[in-house]
Write a structure and sequence with these properties.
The protein is an alpha/beta fold. The protein is 44% helix and 11% strand. It has 4 domains: 1-67 and 231-316, Rossmann fold (3-Layer(aba) Sandwich), CATH 3.40.50.620; 80-176, Glutamyl-tRNA Synthetase, domain 3 (Alpha-Beta Complex); 317-365, Helicase, Ruva Protein, domain 3; 375-458, Arc Repressor Mutant, subunit A (Orthogonal Bundle). It has a 3-stranded parallel β-sheet with strand order 1-2-3, covered by helices on one side. Bound molecules: glutamic acid. Glutamic acid binds at residues 7-9, 41, 188, 202, 206. The site of glutamic acid (GLU) has 7 residues, from loops.
Length: 464
């Protein structure tokens, strides 16, 4: 049975790297008809917040990455971790250590001075035939894991290949602090074990934790999961992705006007490939996704490609759905979206020309607000010789059938009479009606407006 998990620490928003980890874990479970578990690693109480938990859940919901079990909160599982620590103390795989933080500092300084790697010296580690010091009265000990002293700990990472670490490199990890609270790596181990995780898919910033986690799992007699460590994501500029890069939070992409299916499709290709396939649904992804085709090298973010995918999915989406997504964006700008033209009709005309929902909102806005095209823009697009053609067009607007073909014919007739070409009139019409020089086919744009609005907006043109 395949069981994967996404285990974010709720200390901020769901960022794009976390979302990719979640997507890969989710898809792997889907592909194998397994389970995907959401676990909130909230033991860092100083940095974890309920808002961050909500931000993660919102991000997962927006992407549509539904979990089968959870969310489990580590803070609610403290009793369980403490019970396992007691078991390990009883079994002799963990021990009490009374070395104080000051003693540890001194120890480390001495080791550094001798050119040695700083490590706990094992004073309180029980060994056959060894007499331990007497615990100082009233002192609260930490609990340390009794790491094997020799041999290697190794795993075949499903992305990075075989990784081996000598146990001599690892000192005895503190698994419970003096106040009894379990430490980060220990909670992860107990959870992966008890949640029967088969595949740990996570960022490669956790590679260093893995040997310690495997040793503890083995001491518990637990089945060691398989590990797949994903390489990091670099920004467009090739630097490590950070706040500097702007939209690193998944919900920021929502705000910036991206569709979740575009972000998912984009993330799916960030470090994974299936031949040359670039555009695919999540259903298709879940059929294809495997761990063999994840690249061990860092993936570089490419905003242009994301925009291209988003434009593709906007084109594919039906107008009602897009209208429901654009309407609140317009309302947030204080625009009252009237009935004429219908927002769906506007979207139908513009959705092939934009890359984001926000651009769609920019295009739609001019149909519902007063516009004031600048004199410069108008002068740039309304040539003096076109003024009579514009006057003819205005005169014809009263009686023309209110549909694109008839309006198109009226434009042709108006320019034809004065021996002009279409753009001479099409351009000033665009500017006067929308304030923009670039629009879809001008007859279709004119037809979207109520006849009266067209007359009112064209009346602002300089006369003769
Ligand atoms: N909580 C860790 C993080 O947010 C992930 C731990 C794990 O996947 O094992 O980076």
């Amino acid at each position: 049975m395949i069981r994967t998990r996404f285990a974010p620490s709720p200390t901020g928003f769901l960022h794009i790297g976390g979302a990719r980890t979640a997507l890969f874990s989710w898809a792997y479970a889907r592909r194998h008809a397994g389970q995907f578990i959401l676990r909130i690693e909230d033991t860092d109480v100083a940095r974890s917040t309920p808002e961050a938990v909500q931000a993660i859940i919102d991000g997962m919901d927006w992407l549509g990455l539904a979990h089968d079990e959870g969310p489990f909160y580590q803070m609610q599982r403290m009793d369980r971790y403490k019970a396992v620590i007691q078991q390990m103390l009883a079994a002799g795989t963990a021990y009490h250590c009374y070395t104080t933080p000051e003693e540890l500092d001194r120890m480390r300084e001495e080791q550094r001075a001798k050119g040695l790697k700083p490590r706990y010296d094992g004073t309180w580690r029980p060994e056959p035939g060894k007499t331990l010091p007497t615990p100082p009265a009233g002192a609260q000990p930490v609990v340390r894991f009794k790491n094997p002293l020799d041999g290697v700990v190794a795993w075949d990472d499903l992305v990075k290949g075989r990784i081996e670490i000598a146990n001599a490199e690892l000192d005895d990890l503190v698994i419970a602090r003096a106040d009894g609270t379990p430490t980060y790596n220990f909670c992860v181990v107990v959870d992966d074990w008890e949640m029967q995780i088969s595949h740990v898919i996570r960022g490669d910033d956790h590679v260093n934790n893995t040997p310690r986690q495997i040793n503890i799992l083995q001491a518990l007699g637990a089945q060691v999961p398989l590990y797949a460590h994903l390489s990091m994501i670099l920004g467009d500029d090739g630097q490590k992705l950070s706040k500097r890069h702007g939209a690193v939070s998944v919900m920021q992409y929502d705000e910036d006007g991206y569709l979740p299916e575009a972000v998912l499709n984009y993330l799916a290709r960030l470090g994974w490939s299936h031949g040359d396939e670039e555009v695919f649904s999540m259903a298709q992804f879940c059929e294809w996704f495997d761990l063999d085709h994840i690249t061990p090298s860092a993936a570089q973010f490419n905003t242009e490609k994301l925009n291209w995918l988003n434009a593709h999915y906007l084109k594919q989406s039906d107008n009602e759905r897009l209208a429901a997504l654009v309407r609140p964006r317009l309302e947030a700008r204080g625009v009252t979206v009237g009935d004429t033209p219908s927002l769906t009709a506007v979207i139908g005309l513009y959705k092939e020309r934009v890359a984001t929902l926000n651009e769609l909102a920019d295009a739609a806005e001019v149909f519902y607000i007063d516009i004031h095209p600048s004199a410069e823009l108008l002068a740039q697009h309304l040539a003096p010789e076109a003024v009579p053609a514009l006057a003819d067009f205005i005169a014809g607007v009263r009686d023309v059938a209110w549909e694109a073909p008839a309006i198109g014919a009226l434009i042709k007739e108006s320019v034809g009479k004065h021996g002009l070409k279409m753009p001479k009139l099409a351009m000033p019409l665009r500017v006067l009606l929308t304030g923009q020089a670039q629009t879809p086919s001008v007859d279709a744009v004119v037809a979207l407006f109520p006849r009266e609005t067209v007359l009112a907006r064209l009346a602002k043109a300089p006369q003769g």
